[in-house]
Amino acid sequence: MAATNQTSFNNPKFTVPINDVEQQTSLELQAAVKEFDYSKRSQWLRAAVLGANDGLVSTASLMMGIGAVKQDIKAMILTGFAGLVAGACSMAIGEFVSVYSQLDIELAQMKRERQRGDANGGTEENKEEKEDLPNPLQAAAASALAFSLGAMVPLLAASFIREYKVRLGVVVAAVTLALVVFGWLGAVLGKAPVVTSSVRVLVGGWLAMAITFGLTKLIGSSGL
Question: How far apart are CA 158 and CA 23, in angstroms?
Fold first, then answer.
């Protein structure tokens, strides 16, 4: 009888898991870490998409503006290239200054915590905090690259077309397609309605190009 009881208790059917709570807690922590990592990555990607959209709209608007008064392809390409370089430098400098200011604030906060003698702030924790600090150079390079990628769309679209009206039409078509794609990506990464976001980005880009083209045409026709 004793042997039978021992066998029954050793049966996996009657095994009681001891560490269920610990296992569940560990799984929840892992899920939270994955969600946090995804959230962080999605924010960076969304910022890159917005930077590319900025480069696309500003460069295309500049090219449409100069195209309103000059039909020469060289003038349009040079204007677009100047807008790409100036915009990328501006984005990089602005992002560098912004992230460096954030870095200074976080370093000052860490210094205050160490001075208070936080007993729990060991070497390992300080090392992890330093790894999580923002990198101004990386942020500046990412902003400049994203802006440049967006600005390349209208530049490439206009580079090989000599006919004035066809060139303008191709630039508008290429920018329209890119605006839809950027609007869709921004909506997906920001978990926003896709159609609404895409239409908003598309209409905003169209308005920017139309206003720049119209005002430049008006000023050019007035003889200024």
Answer: 59
